[in-house]
Amino acid sequence: MSWTHEQQYRLAIERRILREHMPDFLFYNPAAPGEATVEGTFTSSRGNTYRLVVQIPTGFPDECPSCYVADPVPLTGYHQDMIEYGNSHAMHTWLSDREPWVRLCTYRPERWSAAHSIEKVIQKAMLWIEAYESHTVSGRPVSAFLLNMD
Q1: What is the DSSP letter of 98?
Q2: Is 86 among the domain residues?
Q3: N or C: which end of the chain has fewer CB within 10 A?
Q4: Which residues, in sequence order, are CB contacts of 89 under 8 Å at separation 6+?
């Protein structure tokens, strides 16, 4: 299986956007549908570094990418490890299909559209990390620190 011409064009645009706006995030296996990822690191306002992985689905751009915090592992929350929350609206997480990575809820799949970009997924993951760090100090859920923007 390979990307369609339209998908290849879209992925080229996504690569250009990331190269210009988020040079710390790179494509891996871009020619392999189902294996393509965007990976990079983000340093929070508190100085902590996180590795993010965005899995590009075979149906991209019409299908929602999955986003994970791949490092640090485990990602420790105030009460328990974040992966233990599974599908949690309060914590903005999904049940992970790539344990021990925490899968973030950046978009609800039914609200995803091709108008959204991988850059925006990463931006939302960065906001999640800032909210997560506030959670680790206060014990309040991640959702208390995020606007409902999806």
Answers
A1: S
A2: yes
A3: N
A4: 105, 143
150 occurs within a structural domain: no
Is the pTM above the cut of 0.70?
yes
pLDDT in tens, the chain (150 residues): 799 999 999 999 999 999 999 999 999 998 899 999 999 999 999 999 999 999 999 999 999 999 999 999 999 999 999 999 999 999 999 999 999 999 999 999 999 999 999 999 999 999 999 999 999 999 999 999 998 754
Structural domain that includes position 120:
5-145
Nearest to 42 by CA among 55, 56, 24: 24
CB atoms within 10 A of CB 92: 23
What's the CATH code of the domain at 10? 3.10.110
